[in-house]
Amino acid sequence: MPQPDPTDELVDVLARRILVLDGAMGTTIRSYGLSEADARGSRFADCAKDLLNNGDILSLTRPDVIADIHRRFFEAGSDICETNTFSATSIAQSEFFVDDPREHGGRKDPAFFDRIITDPFLNELAWEMNVESAKLCRREADAVTSTTGRKRYVAGAIGPLTVSLTNSPDADDPGFRVVTFDQVLEAYKHQARALIEGGCDILMIETIFDSLNAKAAAVAVLDVFDELSLKLPVILSAAVGRGGETMISAQKIEAFWNAFAHVKPLAIGLNCSLGPDLMRPHLEELSACAATHVSCYPNAGLPNPLAPTGFDLEPRHMHEFMAEFADAGLVNLAGGCCGNTPEHIEAIARAVADKKPREVPRAEGA
Predict the structure, then answer these.
(1) CB neighbours of 294 closer than 8 A, spacing ≥ 6?
(2) d(CA 234, CA 208)
(3) Distance CA 27, CA 337 (A)
(4) C-beta of residue 208 within 8 angstroms of C-beta of residue 236
(5) What tens digit of pLDDT does each residue of 42-59 get?
(6) Nearest residue to 182 (alpha-carbon basis) of 114, 98, 132
(7) Domains of the chain: which residue ranges?
(8) φ and ψ of 356, to 5 deg
């Protein structure tokens, strides 16, 4: 059964302190040295495609690893951990379990995705991945809450998909889209229902590259709330380029806020794509216009294949940057994306522990 709506409780906590998010699931998974056989387990041993890069499948085949990662992030100081469900939709999972027609001279198109979103195997798999991932994170959150006496929360991670509603992949047919809005909407509704069933406190539409995909996710979440007669807090987080635009839809910061203000999110923020140094001016712009809480979980700098985590910045660097963001009054929630391990999150938690949270401006007419 879904948990009670914690919105009022979270708003109260956010008025008193900066909440700490978790770090990079993918980066931390790689530190366990798992093999293709680990990812497959006995259940998916005969899968025709490699599954090692399908991190979400580990909630089913190596739940011990995923639970351990959640525990480590919570113990490092995370108030909120995301579920291991970044790609847990029928559309995203089709990349691992369905033959790609492009390899045989065909193409992916709405007819192809009609088959995907109605495929019983993919829908059952997506449902199980979301429910079980939420339960794993829920158990660890409750265990650390019981041990420490400080409430911890579970955010259901809703990722960006591998298809775009904004752009055509065909330069000769700019009106073509591989997938329709309604198909994306249906896949996201299925995911949102499963995350709620698994016991999430928050739904988090994150790493938004394509604002139209995210719009479908937001509509899906609101529709499911209406259908289930409940409401959970929603957090939205975009990945932007150096110019402060969403990577595919090229929507600038203020436009991003205006496009999603109607959702009345608990928080809106930025994550991924940039390190904290390059993210700062865009965070400042968002902080100035958003009439809600602001979240920030940047990458640990830029990619560096020679670094232990694949990214340049060490925990001490993230401590310095996030302390500066907090001192400048820019954030209400802070964490890390790619390259941020539990050690990075521990440093971020220390950096913001006694800092005053950003003051949320009153909305017009409030």
Answers:
(1) 267, 268, 269, 283, 286, 287, 330, 331, 332, 333, 358
(2) 14
(3) 9
(4) yes
(5) 999 999 999 999 999 999
(6) 114
(7) 7-352
(8) -75, 135
When comparing pLDDT for 281 and 302, which is higher?
281
CATH class of 7-352: alpha beta
Q: Do 97 and 49 contact (CB within 8 A), yes or no?
A: yes
Q: How far is CA 254 from CA 96, 164, 165, 224, in A?
A: 36, 22, 21, 27
The whole-model pTM stands at 0.95
CA 271: distance to chain centroid? 9
Q: Phi first, then psi: what are they for 80, rounded to 5°?
A: -130, 125
d(CA 130, CA 117): 16
Nearest 5°: phi and psi at 250?
55, 40
List the one residue out of 270, 246, 266, 254 whose CA is nearest residue 322.
270
Q: What is the DSSP letter of 173?
A: -
**Cβ neighbours, 10 Å, residue 270:** 28
Radius of gyration (C-alpha) of the chain in whole angstroms = 19
Rounded CA separation 235/22 (Å):
14
Predicted pLDDT of residue 244? 83
Q: Which amino acid is at 249?
A: S
CA nearest to 18, candidates 343, 359, 363: 359
Q: Note whether 249 and 275 are within 8 A (CB).
A: no
CA neighbor of 211 nearest in space, from 187, 184, 174, 173? 184
